[in-house]
Amino acid sequence: MALVLAGANLLDGPTDHSTEAAQAQALDDAYAAEAARLTLQARIQTNCGPNAAWRERADGDIQCLDKHGRKTIVIAGVQP
Q1: Mean pLDDT within 69-74
Q2: N or C, where is the chain less crowded by C-beta within 10 Å?
Q3: 3-state DSSP call for residue 49?
Q4: Does a structural domain hold residue 68?
């Protein structure tokens, strides 16, 4: 009888703790992704200039634009 009771917890499904741990990990991953995105944007803005606009090109490079929307420099190989 004791053996059956001792092994009963192995038959249970996921516990609340494992669900909370998975949710906490997902939240941590989301915060890390947002931090990486903001860091990348800051690096691009520093390279293009404080008042410049920029956009990502189809090839993954960054095209900097002046205040009139004219293309200025291309930043190649931007990695997060």
Answers
A1: 90
A2: N
A3: coil
A4: yes
Is 60 inside a domain boundary?
yes
As to burial, measured by CB atoms within 10 angstroms (0-12 exposed, 13-18 middle, 19+ buried), residue 54 is buried
What is the domain range of residue 59? 51-80
Nearest to 56 by CA among 30, 75, 35, 39: 75
Angstrom distance (rounded) from CA 7 to CA 22: 24
11-67 pLDDT, tens digit per residue, is: 666 667 778 888 899 999 999 999 999 999 999 999 999 889 999 998 889 999 998
Number of domains, the chain: 1
In angstroms, rounded to a whole number, what is the distance separating the alpha carbons of residues 51 and 72?
Answer: 13
Indicate the length of the chain as a whole number. Answer: 80
